[in-house]
Design brief:
Rossmann fold, 14% strand, 7 strands, alpha/beta, NAD(P)-bd_dom_sf, 7-stranded parallel sheet, single chain
Length: 261
């Protein structure tokens, strides 16, 4: 049986990443999926669409974890047509109360692992002269993240990085798209210990909707897309609101215990 075109998705065990993997399978891509937890159920589901699915379970905050993923991608001798760098971690509470290992893991997952993966596979995509890269940023990158200071800082980096890389490779045939969601109904808030905050308790966007917005923007070669009209409004307001005021507004949403007031 002939291989179909290949898509790579990180953070594919749940949430936006899982929905991106489903969309790729529906669009007749074979898949290499990566996450830091089991992908067996996901793989079984997606094989039912006719896609070949390979999984890599590992820590994508490490060079070794990303190298394992890249080795799995290259083992079939194929270059990805779609690279969806979606893996990310959050972290709530005051920065001075966060163990070094915890905030390092957020930086190493959201920034180091993400851009290392793109630097490993992106040149091969450029050499083949075609491809789409989708990076999951966040509207959080526009807002100083009181009680999420490190996380929001990593997303500011990713939002900026994606635009710079897009311009660097604009003549390669490969496009870079930054998906910037707002709060989305995923495991993110539980894993980030944010369930006792207003942002943890509020109604959130459907990850299937967010993934569809990002996938379509990627396939259309767009530079960036904010999912949802409320988030579009918030990101627009952030551009004209003083940083100190944004930080105070974020405090009201993310301060521990704010969800119980």
């Amino acid at each position: 049986m002939a291989h179909r075109t290949l898509a790579v998705v990180t953070g594919a065990s749940s949430g936006i990443g899982l929905e991106l993997a489903r969309l790729a399978a529906e669009n007749a891509y074979d898949l290499v999926l990566a996450a830091d937890e089991s992908l067996d159920t996901v793989a079984d589901e997606l094989r039912g669409t006719g896609s070949e699915v390979e999984t890599v379970v590992g820590d994508l905050s490490t060079i070794e974890g990303v190298d394992r993923l890249c080795a799995a991608v290259r083992s079939g001798g194929r270059v990805p047509e779609l690279l969806m760098a979606n893996a990310g971690h959050g972290l709530g509470h005051a920065f001075f109360d966060q163990p070094v290992a915890d905030w390092r893991h957020v930086i190493d997952t959201n920034i180091t692992g993400t851009i290392y993966l793109i630097q490993q596979l992106g040149p091969e995509m450029c050499a083949q002269g075609s491809g789409r890269i989708l990076i999951t940023g966040s509207i959080a990158g526009f807002i100083p993240g009181t009680f999420q200071a490190v996380y929001n800082g990593t997303k500011a980096f990713i939002d900026s990085f994606s635009f710079a890389l897009r311009n660097e490779i604009k003549d390669s045939g490969v496009t870079v798209t930054c998906l910037m969601p707002g709060p989305t109904e995923t495991n993110f808030f539980r894993r980030a210990d944010l369930m006792d905050t207003k942002v943890g308790q509020q109604e959130k966007d459907d990850p299937a909707f967010v993934a569809r917005v990002g996938f379509d923007a990627m396939m259309n070669g767009e530079g960036d897309v904010v999912a949802g009209w409320k988030n579009k409004l918030q990101s627009a307001m952030a551009n004209i609101t003083p940083a100190g005021l944004l930080a105070e507004q974020h405090r009201r949403m993310a301060e521990p215990g704010s969800g119980k007031r």
